Amino acid sequence: MFRRIYAIFRARNIEFVRDRATLAWNIILPLALMGGLSLAFGGGDRNEYTIGVLGDPISLTDETHPFLETRYIEFVPVDNLDDGQRKVARHQLDLLLRLDEPPGYWVNPDSAKGYFAERALLQADAAVGGRMHKENIEGEAIRYVDWVLPGILGMNMMFSCLFGVGYVVVRYRKNGFLKRLRATPLQPMEFIVAQVASRMLLVLTITVLVFTGTHLLLDTPMEGSYLNLFLIAALGTICMVALGLMVAARVTSEELAGGLLNMINWPMMLLSGVWFSLESAGTFVQNLAKAFPLTHILDSSRAVMLDGASLADITPNLLALAIMSVVFLALGARVFRWNPL
User: Fold this and answer.
1) Cβ density class 188-223: b for 16+ within 10 Å, e for less
2) Which of 5, 170, 253, 273 has the fewest beta carbons under 10 Å from its own?
3) Is the pLDDT of residue 59 over 80?
4) Domain spanning 49-134: which CATH class is it, in words?
């Protein structure tokens, strides 16, 4: 028995080592992730808090207020008061500060980071006479669970679409199922469309059930149209499935497919604002995030759920998802391979 177990164990290890592409991806993937994270979030001391300052904080000197000397805080300019208040309410900023007359600040009472940022501000302000006064956030403050719900749903959609389709297609190709399909009149685009429709039905059903359950149990806000939110989910699902099919269009190894999909999943999950806002990440990272479908899904869904955005407001995000879907489907159909060799 042990000899048979050892024989299977040894054969599987040899198979893995001989798969040069898979072995390379298992080495390159963690290195690439660490390099990407260090590029995006490195650069010296890490800023734990993000404070918005009405005006340009770069033009202010440290003598303006001692709070500006506080370490581990990123001060970002905010041009519009209403926009700054909305970002504080949505947990995109931990605190909004006004240094001109009359000096004051806005903070979300449900933000843990906002609480500690407020304590640091008041302590620094006490040293110069305690002139700061707290002002209420206009509108209802948003809980973190309200803000993060679209991120959780989008992340679940991403994994379901990419891995649910990518692994299936690779397995079909590896066991010869696609080779047999090639003998039929079925075209690559027809096969891809069928996969998109099947996964779309499954993912949308699960997403609707999860959203309904959390909305009822947690009383999460829904300010906009349910139809607009469903449109975002449908178009986002199509885009994610098309991306998974494009990745799996020629791959013959499940391990290699997993490496490629993880190479897409992790940067997308980290840079699309699933768990935290990218307000202090820098212009380069924010622009890079727009290249990911998940960013447009989350931005538009949060706009609908939290701000009551209309269809016209989310049209740029929907157009981006539509264009990406067409590109991914076209490329997937163009390079699709039936045979495993």
Assistant:
1) beebbeebbeebbeebbeebeeebeeeeeeeebbee
2) 5
3) no
4) alpha beta
